[in-house]
Amino acid sequence: MNICYGIITHKNSNILRNTINLLYRDNDIILHVDKKVDKAIFGEYKSVADIMDNNVNVQWGTYSQIESTLNIIKNAMKYNFDYLCIISGDDMPLKSSTMIKEFFERNKGKEFIGIDTGINYNSIKNRVKYEHKGYHYKKNKNILEKVAAKVQKELSLQKKNNKFELLPKLYKGPNWFCVSHEFCIYLLDYIENNKWYEDAFKKSLCGDEVFFQTIIMNSKFKNRIYRLNEVDDNHMALRYIDWKTGPEYPRLLDENDFEKIKEDKNSDCIFARKFNENLDINKFNNIFNLYE
């Protein structure tokens, strides 16, 4: 079982260092470093990871989040992998590399990508139906920007995406997933043969949570999705993410969360995020039996 890990990161932290140290020996590692950051900071990983040259300036909510993931998938095609896992620099594994390989071997042929089946369809459409402007991509808008966005929405003043009507039924889920080599080939072929599809997401808002899910759910690979009717779409993608407890959303996980993660019996999660970078790494590795 050959696994390639594509890591999207903007900082060199203890979390990233631990994840790479745990995984690099018998897996391929691709590192996408945000173009805003000096790649020299990540020089310690040159011998164990493929540090991408076609990296992009990643900005929240924009097409750049799709582009960075696509570039990882394109880079991964030079490796002989069975599964490609897209993770962030804030993730850490919950199982050893050997156990992860055994899990994928037992479930070979499945696709591990989350699909939110309970979301209102209009909320998905609105991410792609209109062309979004700069202030739409700000997490913390000022009062004027909030008013402008609300007025545009209420009065239907936003310019419509002229590619929207070409799109198949849309689906949404988390932008972190593990998918097969076969699906990656299908995905890249689909985009190459339907260039309008990528264009349709160029001015989307948080389209990275729709782009990949829509392709897989409108293909034969839909029938291979792991636990498709799972309530928690993050569990479908094998991720432990706490969107409920706070105070941050998602919660910044620390030592107080270790036992709760271990007791999550309803999931087969192999990764968790986001972690507080100041947590006790050795304690984490020992509790989850990650040393091999």
Automatic annotation (TrEMBL):
<protein>
    <recommendedName>
        <fullName>Peptide O-xylosyltransferase</fullName>
    </recommendedName>
</protein>
<keyword id="KW-0735">Signal-anchor</keyword>
<keyword id="KW-0328">Glycosyltransferase</keyword>
<keyword id="KW-0333">Golgi apparatus</keyword>
<dbReference type="InterPro" id="IPR003406">
    <property type="entry name" value="Glyco_trans_14"/>
</dbReference>
<dbReference type="GO" id="GO:0046872">
    <property type="term" value="F:metal ion binding"/>
</dbReference>
<keyword id="KW-0472">Membrane</keyword>
<dbReference type="GO" id="GO:0016020">
    <property type="term" value="C:membrane"/>
</dbReference>
<keyword id="KW-0808">Transferase</keyword>
<dbReference type="GO" id="GO:0050650">
    <property type="term" value="P:chondroitin sulfate proteoglycan biosynthetic process"/>
</dbReference>
<keyword id="KW-0256">Endoplasmic reticulum</keyword>
<dbReference type="InterPro" id="IPR043538">
    <property type="entry name" value="XYLT"/>
</dbReference>
<dbReference type="GO" id="GO:0030158">
    <property type="term" value="F:protein xylosyltransferase activity"/>
</dbReference>
<dbReference type="GO" id="GO:0015012">
    <property type="term" value="P:heparan sulfate proteoglycan biosynthetic process"/>
</dbReference>
<keyword id="KW-0479">Metal-binding</keyword>
<dbReference type="Pfam" id="PF02485">
    <property type="entry name" value="Branch"/>
</dbReference>
<keyword id="KW-1133">Transmembrane helix</keyword>
<keyword id="KW-0812">Transmembrane</keyword>
<keyword id="KW-1015">Disulfide bond</keyword>
<keyword id="KW-0325">Glycoprotein</keyword>
